[in-house]
Every structure is written in C-alpha cells, then in structure tokens.
Amino acid sequence: xxxxxxxxxxxxxxxxxxxxxxxxxxxxxxxxxxxxxxxxxxxxxxxxxxxxxxxxxxxxxxxxxxxxxxxxxxxxxxxxxxxxxxxxxxxxxxxxxxxxxxxxxxxxxxxxx
Length: 113
What we know:
The protein has about 110 residues and is mainly β. It has strands at about 5, 10-15, 20-25, 35-40, 45-50, 55-60, 65-70, 75-80, 90-95, 100-105, 105-110. It starts with a strand and ends with a strand.
C-alpha cells in the first residue's frame, strides 16, 4: 500500500512562488509515474503535471512555463515548483502515484491578488 503525504502549501501573493513536496512510502517509488492534480472550490479536480519514471514531464497548458515537476527517487519524493502564481491557481493540490492508483490528502494553496 502506497502512502503519499503532501506538504508546502500556504498563502502567497500573486507573482510569488511555492514548492510543494509529496513524500511516498510503502511502494517502489521509482517505478511509478507521479502526478499533481488540483481542485478549486466548486470545480472538478484537474490534472496539473506528471513526471514518468523515465523523467518525461507533461503539463496542463495553464501552468506551462510557470510550474516545474521533478522527482528525487533517492528521497521517494516528487516536487512541484510553482512560480508566478496567479489567484486562479488557488486550490487544494493533490499528489497521485501510478496514474491515479494512489492519492495523498492534499495541501491547500491560496494566492491572493
């Protein structure tokens, strides 16, 4: 059973930066594709970014050039560096492993204008 724990969320002003972390345990982290999703109040959960086990990255268009996903297999951790944050980035951010097979509890990101 894979457990995922997100951290790093918080309140930031527009234009600021945050780095989210997701620590994994209980599985073979290096073999999983790891993803970040987000869900804003009243909206459906949406895909944000993914990094495969080989390091290939994919982003939703709205964050391209601002967000960077990375992974450290030695630390069983995936990161989401978020720069130039906008109020519309406000959401609960979730980490997922193995294409939605496992989910974390989420971390709140709030961007003030």
